[in-house]
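Q: Fold this one first, please.
A: Sequence and structure below.
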Amino acid sequence: MLPPLATKASPEASMLLKVLAKQMRMQKQELLMNHFKYIFSYLVCHCSKEEMEKALTYVQALGSLNSIMELMGPKHITAVRMKVMATLKIAIHFTEEDFPQICTQAWNTFVHKLEMRRLSENQKSSFFYLSVEDENFAYDLVQELVRSFLAAEDTRIQDCASYALQETLQIYTCQSGELSQIVRPSNSLWNRFSEEIQEILVPLQHSRYIMSSNKRTSFPCPIYGSKLGSTFKDWACNWASCLLQKIKRENTARVFQSCFMIVKNDVKTAVFLLPHIMVNVLQDASNEEKEDIYREIMAVLSHVDQAEQSKLKFHEKTDLCHLSAQTVFSILDCLTVWCHQYFVMLRSSNQNNSKPANKGKGNIQNTFWIDVVNFVPPLTISHSVKL
């Protein structure tokens, strides 16, 4: 029933598809994408010879997409990145012939051609750290935790920030005096902080805060729209806490676990850490964990899509809808920057070595990137980016 309706391209067929999608509790576009392979097979079996030849011509256009992006350059690619992502997202679903290889090449060209400084205009910096081991990440994390400590409205939140700072200073061996000079001779991290910040940090070098409970917390999926996600603060804090528990690499998990309690209570810290948490979760996520992330993102963006379709004015959209969507796209932008920087680092590393030892790892990151962009249906992107 679905393939013939999809090929009709008439107002009546479109209306029937919307009714069918509503009965299945999904968007029309999601219904079509989920059943794309059946629709595609039907089209191939029932199209004429002339239509098939025309379709093959369009495939060769796809093959020249790399050249088109090369000609456009970073400035113009970045300006239309959402539309390019939407196009490439559709192409991912084709697995016939050379499509997977063409699509992977197109994604690589797209990521390499993005202009990083224009990606995150609402961010303080368009640079995204490749690893939590980067001293710059440690510096920004401490600064954020100090902000949370000073802004705390009650002693409980201040204690959570104090614990996070205490643990972070220990993890990065950020100490004043002789101890720091032994462990980190340059003492570079400590010296980067102002005297005012150092005065706050000194007592925490010897404090003994402990986390009241290390018990894992259960969360519904999706969190958005549930009792734990009825406000933006609740959603952001609880989603960050949920993702934080899925990080598998021991050293990385230790960094984020130290921030678990403050993330649950301070929405600004939660939003600051969410992109970093997401990068580290996705690199080792199981299929089930990826599906959970997909469902969470779609819960947010489907709400935005409904708001667009109901033609609500900008000021009538709730903070939950607007801020959550902006947070999701900020995360996607950061993931784009991370992938770009990783490929640049990998390419530089391979150029400096006669044997490209990281070639296999690069292929892993290609898969990782496709997993990332595969989360968000293209038409949902086009609606949400209008916010």
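Q: Good. Now the second chain.
A: Here it is, same layout.
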Amino acid sequence: MDRNSSLIKMFAMLCRRQNVSCGDEQKMNETVAAFLKHILQRHLERKQNRSVVIMESADIVDYVCNMYIGPALCILGIFGNIFNIFVLFRGRLLDSPYVYLKALSFTDMFALILSLPYLLFTKHSDNFSPNVYNAFVFLPVVNLLTAASVWITVGVTIDRFIFVKFPLLARSYSSGSRVKRRIFTIYTFGILFTLPRYFCYSLVNDLGVYRMEFTPFRDSAYYRVYDIVCIIIYHFIPLVIFVVINTYLIVAVYRARFLRQELGIRNNREQDWQVEQRRFTITLIGIIVISIVAIFPSTISDFSRLTNLSLHEYKLLRNISNLLLLCNLSMNFVLFCAFNKRFVRAIKTIFNKRRNKTRIYISFKSRTRSSRSDTCVVTRQHSFISACKM
């Protein structure tokens, strides 16, 4: 504001000088033109400086996210999801919500496994094999897995809503076989929606340097329609479902806790079951909150691709949204351990069994050794006595 006011004052002084000196209209027009040219030049300089700052910040964020933060999240998430799968299968967690969590852990693990080589090796490579991996493995398959992860979370969210709102209907709706059919349906539709992504890129050889280029289909109006449909199905609809149902679940958990305190219900088998279900609901609320935080910037970046946003601004926004998606794929283990006591009990049971087996094995081995030593002593004594008798 101060700079603009000073420019206006300078313009007024110039006008007065021109009026006083000659009063010629032509010189007045030249003064106005010079002033407007000066303002336009200043505006272009500021815009250029702003674009340089955005470019530098986008490059810095891209380097830090792809070389350090992204691979670290992938490695932690891979090991965390492997441990989730081990506990969910060995801990005998057979309820229908845990079927969703098993599928979610597998999906997130494979998405992170495919993302790790892309971030570390193939993203900036100009060789043939890495570009084939980027165009025909990483981009379509990871899009499929992230979309499946989102809709598996939507499935368990709707199941939990039905369990809380309509508990009599939940037993038939959320049976294990039906949950498996829903997961199969999610993957089937995901594969069908992912097929057009295999026709988006082609590899170009420029004097031994390979790079990906858009195909005519990628630049066509058909792909724009396809992109909008994917944004609505994979981002907008899940966001609406997450926000609405998560709000209802938070209110339901608060009411259940308040009712328990008001009625003064103490420990019994039914109450333990209700507490366990409430804790699973809290676990799901945490998963939904992280999904909302991860999906919302990705939705904005996808919509911004349809606007006139500059390349460096889109690149900056895309890197932030990809980082949040990696956090979403990697955080399940932390949420399970933080809010789900049944999951923690399963971990303790598995490790206690292994510890007991190790103790039994060690004690059995020590007993066999002692029995062998006793047998050797007896045989030696017997041979010594027989030798004396002779």
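Q: Anything worth noting on the second one?
A: The chain has eleven helices and two strands.
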